Amino acid sequence: MEFVLARASAGLADGTIRGDVGHLEQMRSWFGRQLWEMEPSDADAYFGKVPRASPSGTRLRRSQTLTTYFLVLELRYKVEIDRMTGRVTKCPIDEMNRPRGSSDAALRISSSGPEVKMLFAGWGGELATCWKVAPTARNYTASKLMSQVGGRVSEACKLDLADIK
Prior knowledge:
This protein has 165 residues and is mainly α. It has helices at 2-9, 14-31, 40-49, 56-76, 78-85, 113-126, 133-149, 153-157, 161-164.
């Protein structure tokens, strides 16, 4: 569930998230145990046999999905898993078995409400003393708008002054 929420907060489309969950379910079904128990040798066996005939993009996507899943585990549950099982959670995808590709896995964890308020309070205070007021005010307003209504950067770029007023 945390994985799905982290991916949704990163702005991924529902179809992409479903695909990621599908990849994880396939790997879990093959592995037969909890994915957090996977070791590099298990990842070698999986990626060397199961998706071997799949297009390179599919292998890369599965690898990235597994890496991102482990990022969530390591950031949020590493201590708990270690405490409960004595097992250190570590991603089984390493330099040796990482499928070739140019994309990197990305995980975005949303900032808390107080952190966002602190950001905009400090930024708003700088408006009075900044050197170029117009671009700074524009950036502040667009960012504040996106944070409150969930707009996309591409949508904010299309706004003009009349839209803001």
